Amino acid sequence: MPLPSLTERAGEITGDLSLTGIPIELYPIVLFAGALRLLRLESESYWLDEAFSVTTVLSNTPSELLVSLPGNDPHPPFYYLLLSGWAAVFGTGELATRSLSALAGIATVVVLYGVGQRLFDREVGAIAASLLAVSPFHVWYSQEVRMYSLLGLLTVLSFYWFVRIQTETRSDDTGVRAEIGYVLATVLLGYTHVFGLFAILAQNVYVFSRYLLRIVPRSRLTVRRWIALEGITALLLAPWLVRLFRRTVAAHGGETSNVGWIPLPTAATVRETFAAYLGGPLFSESFPLAISLVVTGFLILSLSSDRWTETDRRHASLNATYIVVLWFAVPILVPIALSHVVTPIFVDRYSIGASLAFFLLIAKGIRTVSRPSLRYVVTGLLLVGLALPLPAYYQNDQKEQWREAAATVESNVDADDVVLVSKPFTERTFDYYFDRSGVPTVQIAPDAPPDEIRASVDGHDDVWIVLSYTSSSTDRRILQAVANRSEYRDPAAVNRYNGITVVRFEGTSNDG
């Protein structure tokens, strides 16, 4: 008797409950996900990385973004190209630019439901989509002008088409569409972030190891056909892969790397990454231990439950679980290993695609509970636990308040004043919001000697110092260098914002 395909298994379980072809349970999940991702989307100013994204697309043509930028930025160009076109239509305000990431985050919820349904069943898809909908980790990056939300969407799209091309004949129109969809989604994934390559690696590990493990259900994807698809994908990705290879060789040879700020990952890094998936960037340390233990239990249950089912269904379920485990593990373990061999590259947000498999495994574990009422209770408790950090997230400022800091200086500064910015790469963010072109803005390096700081304020009336991303000792040294000048009194005003301090020294020449 032939083994049932993944789609046949899903069809047996899902039933026909839908509204205009869309499963009815998906509506509230998507509405809730959309509300969380669009709420207060424009309330905070850009922080450093967001300002870099916006100013990059404003200061470069599309051809420069495609050709020149990849030589200076560690990330591939697709997100910047997409943001450039988006900003040309909707503008560069916080609401406009962040809405691109928000829409990508909402779409990710929908596609993850589809993957869960195809791999397992409708209930697994709904549970995984629900967990993703309220995840603070994903809400955070769905409200940021960076490529991480798009990285998550393209990862799950690539796996969606990856599953489909194994279960549909190539002679069918749907089979051809699945192959085209896979190549398109996977190429865009590779051009969005380097960690997209680890998702592709996970797919290849599955294809070339599945026969050895003898857990493969009926599949119409032959190895020869897969090699052809990957060949097309690699050919289309070749321009970026060549740049990436040259950059890796240069970094391994001792040249300065543009990812030199990334620390070497440890065992604690893995633990903190899982905590981030559950509680978000700011709440990983405070996430309730009980919720973490429950999640761990269902992950174990997800991996061990298949052996208790009948043979045909066990093979199909093991195959689906194997896909998700590789999807989850490879984009975490391989870059951590490379970090120890070549150069540190692992950051939890880079593995946002793996977090989607994490939620699928939790959902599958919950699905193994025999009593439906208990599954609902467990899912509800996990949703509440995941949502616990969200009120604080929305009520308190999370990003540096550059808009407010710049407005304070702008409303009080004169043309004879000078503004010192404490670190070179913060000047871009401050200048984005500071609309007084006649006022000089001077970069002060963290290790600048006192004489250099004093020389930068010579001939000016008042001195405004914007401190951010520096240590307290550096801040004291910069302030002391100005305070020691007899031309300036002690600070006339100190304004503190989230992550920023603005200090004003009033010149004695103002005495009249």
UniProtKB/TrEMBL annotation:
InterPro entries, A to Z: LipidA_mod_glycosyltrf_83 (IPR050297), RgtA/B/C-like (IPR038731)
Domain (Glycosyltransferase RgtA/B/C/D-like): residue spans on this chain: 75-241
GO annotation, biological process: lipid biosynthetic process
KW Transmembrane helix (keyword) present: yes
Subcellular location as annotated: Cell membrane
Protein name: Glycosyltransferase family 39 protein
GO molecular-function term, one example from the UniProt record: pentosyltransferase activity
Residue intervals passing through the bilayer: 124-141, 148-165, 180-202, 223-242, 287-304, 316-338, 350-366, 373-394
Keywords: Cell membrane, Glycosyltransferase, Membrane, Transferase, Transmembrane, Transmembrane helix
Primary residence: membrane
One of the Pfam families matching this protein, by short name: PMT_2
Bilayer topology annotation: Multi-pass membrane protein
Keyword match Lipid biosynthesis: no
GO cellular component: plasma membrane
